[in-house]
Design a protein that fits this description.
The protein has 724 residues and is mostly beta strands. The chain has one domain: TonB-dependent receptor, beta-barrel domain (Maltoporin, Chain A). It is built from nine helices and 39 strands.
Amino acid sequence: MLSYFIRNVALASTLSHRVRRALRISILPLVCLPAFAAESDVVMLDRLVVSTATRTQRLLAETPVRTEVLLSDNINMRGAANLSQAIELVNGIRIESNCQNCNTTEVQLLGLGGAYNQLLFDGTPLLSALGGVYGLEQIPAAFIDRLEIVKGGGSALYGPDAVAGVINLIPAIPIAPGGFIQSGVEIQKNTPLYITDARADVIAASGKLAISFVGQYARNNGIDFNNDGYSEITEKRLAIGGFMAIFRPSPLTTLHTYYQYIHETRRGGNRLEQPEYLANIAESLRTGYHRGMFTWAQEISSGFNFRANYSFVHIDRKSFYGGLGDIVTDPNAPGFDPAQLDPSVPGSAASASYNQYGATKNPLHYIDLQTNLLYGAHAIAFGAQYKHEAVRDENRDYTGNILHVASDDVFSNTGIFVQDEWTVSSRINLVLGARADKSSSLDSIAFSPRIAVAADLTPALKLRAAISTGFRAPEVFSEDLHVETLGSDQIRIRNATGLRKERAATYMTGLEWRPVSSRQWAVDLTASYTDIRDTFALGEIQTDPGGTLYQERFNASGSRIAGLELNVSGRPVSQLVLIAGAAYYHSEYNDERTVFDDTSDGGTIVIATRRYLKTPDWTAVAQAVWTPVKTLDVIAGLKYTGPMRALNNSDAELRRTRDFWVLDLGLTRHFSVGGSRHFDVSIGVKNLLDQRQKDLETGANRDSTYVYGPRYARSFYVTMRYEF
């Protein structure tokens, strides 16, 4: 892909900003389906890309595996600050918050949680186990050129855990000297979030070297939605710096390197001005996050090339999960006992919270080798991938003394793959692929065949279908490294003895209709079915003999997820683009599983269900982009989240939530400063109707996991961006 973009530097650099921007706006409907446009835009709409699913050059509309694309202009107009806010603009994808204290999130795709999809940076894995806990909010949207989403596991090029699909973050490739600086403020509940992004692109006179330098700084104070003294939005400080370089020493060789460092502090709970162990509840993280990669792409001949990639992640996190609990901390309040705040007093609340600190190191190394061969009607890709990851999680006291090692795990996976993209005829494309993976946590090799087909039934109607298989090995997952709390008590996750791997099979079929005569409208309908054997599930909260709360991960009998997605997009007039999509995913276990049981503690309540928790059946998105004049864009966006089941451990209830309609409005005014320089001002409101959870848990004994639906209250934003 990089070599393709570099070969087109000369062409791209001759386009003015306004022309390039107009071409981008013209393909906003790619959010929902491959492409459509007015007749004059067809050449640019059906542009050559390197498909995420096959890594081969194809017209986007002709990729054999359905690929959805979200462009940076759309992301910017909706005021998305980070990757988590950008992803949820795509139909069938939703971001779910999993903690009221620290705001950890996950991506739900095809009705499955974040562990079932892969997040990639330009085709390589982006997140480690620890990085998946908060990483979605640590990737600036301003640095994303586009997102490519492949739902289902129809490609053999990606790991065995890409059951629900792949989300590929494509960075902006430097094609001309310049850059931007962008600064904005978003006001939520009278609390400002300040954010500044910048990028500078440098191109060598020879044209062989291009470098981008990027940076971001963001900060906000904690926000308390229900005025109980405990935050729902964490206090946060985020600083990011890095660079990306592309070097072409010869026309056939491309070298690409990337490095980024992230430093983030976040804290939620109460008494935010005090040390964590003196808060009733505190979840506090200080994270240093290094990630980088190096890629060598070599063309041997017109039909033979290879790609070698090395990427790494190293995370060093200091954490605190816990607190004093329901202890009076106000010296003027009845029942105040200063001894409870003294960690040197045996049996005091502070003596326990003083020891609830942690330190986690998580290095990951990934090697990806791929060779591509064109042979007649076949584009054959084969190669090998190796992932090595370690997690060391230590329990420490306030001073940093190590009390014990909670986990010290090393795991790896070696995979080989082969994939044949076969052009059977001018109307039929077939993708045949298979993987063989050996995980260090499994005794045997796992074989994962995959197949996809695309057929032009008529010039306007395309059929796509895919069958894929994959697995998840019993390793350390992101949710293990986010320590949930019930009140001030930590809840750890443990794997059951003899935990077996999951096996999954996904079946997808869909129709895409794009009328050839005008290409003004497009419709696609996709059905999917995922069958998982030995599904990983978490049991009820238990107490071990030492008094520690924990949940055990075990193998349920299995689960199944049936889905249906409908997308419609059109351009009724040249100034207006309309997009709408609805998704239905019904996720359930084959048998009921117990999610709450207090009988061992003398209670009488047992709650069992077959339904996946916090996973709605229905979601939808809609968007209208109106450009009355070339210098003004007006956008309206709507997100719908249907009812779902959510467990409240404090009240021992499984509740059916309400539905939510989140309406966003915004406009962007463009000012020309001369040449390619310009200045944009955006203003808008997010969640205009203030649709969010109203029965939030309160006080020191709150269940931090009982949080669902839209993550943010009504907010207003202003952003200014200068491009040069």
